Each structure stands twice: as C-alpha cells, then as structure tokens.
Amino acid sequence: MRRSRWRRIVVKLSGEALMGELSHGLDAPTVTRIAADLTNAAALGVEVAVVVGGGNFFRGIAGADKGIERARADSIGMLATVMNALALEYAIEKQGQTARTLSAVPMPSLCEAYSRQAALHHLGKGRIAVLAGGTGNPFFTTDTGAALRGAELSCDLIMKATQVDGVYSADPKLDPTATRYEKLTHDEAIAKNLAVMDTAAFALARENRIPIIVFSIRQPGAISAALEGKGKATFVSP
User: Fold this and answer.
1) Would you say 166 and 219 are in contact if contact means Cβ atoms under 8 Å apart?
2) Contact partners, residue 21, CB within 8 Å, separation at least 6
3) Of the candidates 60, 63, 102, the residue with the CA atom closest to the CA atom of residue 77
C-alpha cells in the first residue's frame, strides 16, 4: 500500500464544490466523487478531517448584504454546513469508509457535538471526521475554522480545495493576465492580500507552522494527487 508523507490532514471543502454545475444545493455525482477522493486519501494511511462550508445553501455575508443581521446570517450559514456534512458523511460511508459528523453547533439528534477529544478519537480509529458548524461562532469563516481545527488537532497539513488550481496573483476568471504561484510563504500570502483564504486563516496557520496546499477539487483523484505532489497546486509554507 502506498503511504503518504503526511500523518494527519484537514481538508477545507467549500459548499460550492458540492453543487457541481448546479446553481445551488447538492449534486449527487459530485458529492460521490469527492467522497471517493477522501476515501482514497484515507487509504494512503492519512488521518483525514474535513471542514465543510455551506455556500451552496446560504452564505452569511450574502445574507447580511440582504439585510439580515450579520450574527444571525452567520448562524444560518452554520446550519447549512451541517446539511452538507451529513450528506458527505453518508456518501463517504457508501464508499465503505467509516465517517463521523461532528458539529461545533450542538445538534444531538442529528450528529455528535464537536470536541477535540472526540475528533481525535475518531481519527485514531481510522474514521474520516466531517467537521460542521465552522468555529461555532459568527464573524468567522469556515476557512478560519479549517485553520483552527488544523491547529488544535495537530494536523501536518491544511488542504484548501478550490475551483482553481492554486493561488493566483488575481482572480483568473476575471483577469487573464493573472499568474499562478508554485510556492508562497504565509507572510507573502498575507502581505499580497491573496484572497484564496482569509487573513485570519493564514495567520492561524502561520502561528502554528502548518503548511497549506491550495488545489482544484474539480478532477477525480485531486486530493490524493495533491497529497503525493502531483498535478498543479500552490504550496504555502510557514
């Protein structure tokens, strides 16, 4: 069996990644593909945690722009992440890989409440830990949630799954002259204000010396390929 150089990782998966070509919601084939990719990563001997966003159902910032109080809008967004996490947990288990959803917003009738001890227990048992509810607090993105979980679970790597194949100098969808970075430091990412992750997430990763791989989730096998250093990606180092 192939082994990865990484012992424990946290994958940040956006809600938008789960909707495929749909305008909102969940695209079943896409969810199945990503679940298979996560299962393949676990088969490399890596302990896998996944922080999932909720933008395919509701984005807190967008809700605030429409007149909903920001703290309330973010709470709605946290609920959206739980819906995604439960769907992803089911899809992972259909692949024959055990998984557990843990939510930072306690919902005991639906899933286990998040705690560091519970997450480490499941990871140690070889289960994929699907982490919902962001940080459990408003005003923090799920990117920051991923960096926070990466730090408290002593992860070796944060994997930021996006719709583009790395970090660019500008949005490549809007600026055809944008260039992709092969490597960056956390300091450079913050100084250049590169928007692939928010500043708080980069700062948390920097303080805890956790590298970040930014890669595209659009192709089958993307997570395993990025773990093995294959394909296009940007490596952000401490």
Assistant:
1) no
2) 27
3) 60
β-pairing, 99-103 with 47-52? unpaired
- The full 3-state SS of 53-86, as one line of letters, equals CCCCCCCHHHHHHCCCCHHHHHHHHHHHHHHHHH
Provide the terminal-to-terminal Cα distance of the chain, rounded to the nearest Å: 30
For Cα atoms 233, 150, 78, give the angle at the middle one, nearest 5 degrees: 95
Q: How many Cβ atoms are within 10 Å of 171's Cβ, its own excluded? A: 11
Return the number of other C-beta atoms located less than 10 Å from residue 158's C-beta: 29
Q: Where are the beta strands (DSSP E) in the chain?
A: 8-13, 47-52, 99-103, 112-113, 128-132, 157-162, 167-168, 180-181, 183-185, 212-216, 233-237
DSSP state of 114: P
**Burial of 15 by CB count in 10 Å (0-12 exposed, 13-18 middle, 19+ buried)?**
buried
> What was the pLDDT predicted at 217?
95
53 Cβ neighbours under 8 A, 6+ residues apart: 12, 13, 14, 15, 16, 81, 84, 142
Considering the entire predicted model, what is its pTM?
0.93
Strand 233-237 versus strand 212-216 pairing type: antiparallel
How many CB atoms within 10 Å of residue 174? 7
Distance (Å, whole) CA 205 – CA 180: 21
User: Using CA atoms, how far apart are residues 29 and 138, in angstroms rounded to an integer?
Assistant: 31
| pLDDT tens profile 55-95 | 999 876 676 677 889 999 999 999 999 999 999 999 999 99
